[in-house]
């Protein structure tokens, strides 16, 4: 029996429940019922604007976003549900730190709520590098249902791979 890598960090009884849904072939339906709605954030420009809107609303004081793009080479799990790079550029005489956010292309087709979740995750990294308590507080500040969304995203990715 293969391990379900996206939910390997969750308690065994949770993994067993997911395994049962997978075996019954109903995980996809369960998710589709809850997350039926897609989104129209297709281009990198749209992704930047979408991310910037959430940042303006919740994280105004964080450093400016330099770039936000979809990246086909990103693997969601390996890069800890997205990636975040601090890029230092020399601008005139001073060194200016700017931030870029890369979002795995799987989110281009994913339900709207999962795009929102991953963008919130990456925005929180503007202030917190680690997945610590302060990090998750930022996430739930931007999306009150963050923990449920992250869990369901892991189910969604699990289900995509099993097809
Ligand atoms: Zn992260």
UniProtKB/TrEMBL annotation:
Pfam families: YgjP-like. InterPro entries: UTP_pyrophosphatase-like, YgjP-like_metallopeptidase. Residues 96-153 form the YgjP-like metallopeptidase domain. It comes from the Bacteria. This is YgjP-like metallopeptidase domain-containing protein. It comes from Pseudoxanthomonas spadix (strain BD-a59).
């Amino acid at each position: 029996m293969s391990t379900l890598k996206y939910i390997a960090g969750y308690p065994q009884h949770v993994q067993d429940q997911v395994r049962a849904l997978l075996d019954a072939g109903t995980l996809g339906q369960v998710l589709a019922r809850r997350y039926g709605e897609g989104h129209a954030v297709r281009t990198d420009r749209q992704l930047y604007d979408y991310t910037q809107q959430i940042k303006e609303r919740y994280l105004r004081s964080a450093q400016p976003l330099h770039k936000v793009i979809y990246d086909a080479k990103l693997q969601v799990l390996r890069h800890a549900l997205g990636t975040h790079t601090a890029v230092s550029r020399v601008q005139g005489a001073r060194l200016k730190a700017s931030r870029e956010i890369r979002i795995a292309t799987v989110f281009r087709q994913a339900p709207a709520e999962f795009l929102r979740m991953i963008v919130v995750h990456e925005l929180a990294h503007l202030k917190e590098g680690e997945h610590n308590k302060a990090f998750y507080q930022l996430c739930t500040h931007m999306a009150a249902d963050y923990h449920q969304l992250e869990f369901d995203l892991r189910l969604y990715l699990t289900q995509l791979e099993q097809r």
